[in-house]
Amino acid sequence: MRRKTKIIIGSPIVIAVLALIYWQNNTPSTMNQSTIATPQSDYYFKNIKIRQFNSEGNLENQLNAQLMEHFASKNLSIMETANIIFYPQEKTNNAQQLTQNTWQVSAAKGEFDHLRNQLTLDKKIIMREIVQTQPPQKSQPEISIDTSHLNVDLNRQIAENQVAVTIKNEHSLTSAIGMQIDFKRSQLKLKSQVSGEIYTND
Fold it and tell me: What are the transmembrane regions (predicted)?
């Protein structure tokens, strides 16, 4: 399936970077160190948004990062304070319609493999499922998932790991080791050592 990617830049510095194609490593030393790329990176972005659309022009996901440094030799980027929103879609009566569930994933650190279109997220990872109904009804319990490492395949919209996972909502708490989550279908599979608690109003 053919996809289209759109990049939105929030920093005026990056406009000059794009015009030059890449940021030179031999930037004059008189410049403030906080405004130049590290010696290893080719260029960097601040407050960047990367949107991925499917072949029908519908938005599939949006990746935001406060800082993204690009390494051309490895075809990857290192990110700080990353956030990605998945907009799952399904076909009903031959018409493209949004499902009721939207997922948001945030992390302190991330690595973006441009060639494979995959993310590796680390530290303070929080996933939230936002449930919407049409027409609007009583709000549904929000599901929150906490973990420390996550591999995300943006093409398949699937994420998985092999580390501790905690799933919370207002009625229950579940823990496990390892999980796989399909953002497109809103399906979660826990791999091992699953345990849980259910809260009542008593």
Answer: 7-24
> pTM for the whole thing?
0.71
Of 14-23, 59-68, 80-89, 154-163, minimum mean pLDDT range: 14-23
Preceding amide of 12 cis, omega within 30: no
Domain residue ranges of the chain, discontinuous segments joined by +: 4-198
Residue 165, token pair as written in the block: 């996972």
Structure tokens at 166: 């905690």
Q: Residue 41 and residue 192: Cα distance in Å, rounded?
A: 39
Asked if the 4-198 domain carries CATH number 3.30.160.20, the reply is: no
User: What whole-number distance in Å separates Cα of residue 41 and Cα of residue 72?
Assistant: 8
Distances in Å between the Cα of 124 and the Cα atoms of 29, 82, 145, 147 are 35, 11, 11, 7
